[in-house]
Amino acid sequence: MASKDSFSLDELDGGSRDVAEFDSHAAKDLEAIYDIPVQISAVLGKATMQVSQLLKLGRGAVVELDRKVGEAIDIYVNNRLVARGEVVVVEDRLGVTMTEIIKSDRS
User: Fold this and answer.
1) Neighbouring C-beta atoms of residue 45, cutoff 10 Å
2) Sheet containing 80-90: which strands, arranged edge to edge?
């Protein structure tokens, strides 16, 4: 069951909407934000180590993270947690699929 601070994408009404579904005035208003750059980060996990340990790492070293295989990863937009998701492989490349959007309490 989802917590009160998050909800699943399955709970959204109608899924995603195409810009064509909006009237032309609303679509024009949205076009103003299309070129704004945002930084998106997918955090697989975290690890803490001393600088001396970090300097000893070599090619092929394995760093143990605080998450287990199959656990949801955190997705940040402009350093703000906005969703959780899963790592997927698409044509030999890694990707992320969002499984849960995190509601924020902006005041």
Assistant:
1) 13
2) 6-8, 93-102, 80-90, 73-77, 40-43
Mean model confidence pLDDT for the chain: 81
Q: Write the DSSP string, the chain.
A: ---TTEEEGGGSSSS---GGGS-HHHHHHHHTTTT----EEEE-------HHHHHH--TT-----SS-TTPPEEEEETTEEEEEEEEEEETTEEEEEEEEEEP----
Longest pairwise C-alpha distance within the chain: 59
Q: In the predicted model, is pLDDT for residue 5 greater than 60?
A: no
Question: At 70, which amino acid appears?
Answer: G
Residue 22 pLDDT greater than 70, yes or no: no
What is the rounded end-to-end Cα distance, in angstroms, of the chain?
A: 26
